[in-house]
Amino acid sequence: MATSVSTKALTPRRAIMLAAVMSFVGAMTVTGVAKTISKDIVDPFTLQNGSLVILAALIAAIAWNLITWYYGIPSSSSHAIIGAVAGAAIAASGFGALHYSGFLKIIQALIISPILAFAVGFIFYAIIKAIFKNNQNLTKTNNRFRKVQIVTAAFQAYSHGTNDAQKAMGIITMALIANGYTNSTDIATWVQVSCAVAMGLGTAVGGWKIIKTVGGKIMKIRPVNGVAADLTGASVILGASFIGLPVSTTHVITSSILGVGSSHRLRGVKWGTAKTMVITWFITLPISASIAAISYFVLHMIFGDIG
């Protein structure tokens, strides 16, 4: 929603409500990413002390997400939860607990997706510039794009739900397996609905701090920029969702804006803000893994071997 708010295509209240609704719809559409999270990082059926591992992972991911949210830094919740699960599993059973083929596939998707989003955003905006280069009435053109941006922002929010909400579904399914409530990695309907509702509510309650950073501290976004960034980000995220790969929606959306901004005017991008984001992205996985490992050891000291 950051791009549509910064261009005044939507008011903050309407943007956040639209994001909440469309994220809910997206979360109810597919479950491929959830299945990947539940089985490709570690084997939930053989995971030692699975209940403690999952609890430690959740504590670590939530802690890191709240810290970065408080400071308005668009960190990756995907990196946080994936790093946290890996860190807690390693603490419980050593490095052999990881499914290296699946884990590396996920890491590759997390690395490639923002690079792809930057490149696609750069090219897509270059095409738009070429089409409208002779347009004399820039104000009228931007007003038209501002209306289109309401649709593209909704598309972006929908794609967000198809990927981000799935990660919570995967973690809950792992918890159900670890505690013997299910013997399948298929996502239960009540899990899908509860995660979709939580995604919508979380977006409605806590989105404003990140909107201010993404919408105003990377570049000055015009409606035409916003449309290009929205379509780029949504396309990359949806593509990943439909092949079952978790990606960082934060990385993808921000990289889309950076790609569009670089194509528009390289000096118009606030690279200092971008640098802070990139540093946060790189440190998120190891920090969340470390917090999860520490959390696991503390929980194990308190509760011993369970689940």
UniProtKB/TrEMBL annotation:
The record ties this protein, via Pfam families, to: PHO4
On the tree of life, the source organism's domain of life is: Bacteria
Annotated GO biological processes are:
phosphate ion transmembrane transport
Positions of transmembrane segments: 15-34, 54-73, 80-100, 106-128, 227-258, 278-299
InterPro entries referenced in this protein's UniProt entry, alphabetically = Phos_transporter
What subcellular locations does the record give?
Answer: Membrane
Q: Which UniProt keywords apply?
A: Membrane, Transmembrane, Transmembrane helix, Transport
**Entry protein name:** Anion permease
Q: What does the record give as the organism's lineage? A: Bacteria, Bacillati, Bacillota, Bacilli, Bacillales
